[in-house]
Amino acid sequence: MLGVRGAAVARGLQVLTHSWRRDSRALALARACGAPPTGHWQPSVGSGPRRRRLSLSAAAVVNSAPRPLQPYLRLMRLDKPIGTWLLYLPCTWSIGLAAEPGCFPDWYMLSLFGTGAVLMRGAGCTINDMWDRDYDKKVIRTMNRPIAAGDISIFRSFIFLGGQLTLALGVLLCLNYYSIALGAASLLLVITYPLMKRITYWPQLALAYGGSPVIKERTQDFDSGLTFNWGALLGWSAVKGSCDPSVCLPLYFSGIMWTLIYDTIYAHQDKRDDALIGLKSTALRFRDNTKRWLSGFGVAMLGALSLVGVNSGQTAPYYTALAVVGAHLAHQIYTLDIHRPEDCWDKFTSNRTLGLIVLLGIVLGNLWKEKKTDEAKKSKDSRIKISK
Description:
globular; single chain; mainly alpha; about 0% strand; disordered N terminus
């Protein structure tokens, strides 16, 4: 009898040992794949299913989406919305500047351009990843992107890209004819931008002029200034029916300078990988002189925004916001550590705050115009009464 019980106990211990070893191997595999540490084990309360921690972050929303959709949502970078913000903000500046004195920006236009920013940034990222799938496989931070990892085929990427561009065209067709033509002109920049980092150390400049949305979260989604700031022209024309060069061109130029700042900071995260695989960037061009270049771009940006204020009749709140933006840029550049990728990422993402400060200054400055107008009317009326 004792022998039978002893054998049963031994078999039970063997099963527990085998289960423990299997779980340990699973935990080790999960950690090797990059899963965060689980901490100490705690007993569960009750026998019901575990509840997921509620989170409204973009990454959490993507992770909670149906599994077949997740690769496509990651392909258009919905889990990393900073690029969409940086594409959208120059549009809001332009829409805010085009508002009538004493009025808020056109909410319909803001929502329309917000939708367009999500779609066009997604389309730009899709194009970018299709061009760079072979490069992405060689960089640790991008090897798990959907196309590089094989989660989405090239054929399906084309279909998905076509869907995004079709929806974006629907948004564009809601604008006036002048803006439709202006928006269509940016498509060439959207398509050719990913090639720029193969042939020039200034791919960000191409990104700055275009207004599309590529932000390549790898070798620094080189937000070509030409592409990413097209909205500085498009927002004004959508409200006014055409562009005012005295306002739109300095605003566009300031956006380009801003893009060169934040995208150069971003590029320093992957400069070693870029150098190894033959990609070019301003980070590799500037090297240890980066802060001097960024300071020059910052001065140019503030100068252009000041010119925008003068030509659009802006008021005290606008120039106060520019002073805050200048302090933000100075702190960002002075404290930047180009040799720490974590710090580069933090400085890069802080530019959303900078862009919102500019927008706030534009809105408050425009509302302040009404106050000045009312005071001018009262002064004029009082002078008329006195003369009578």
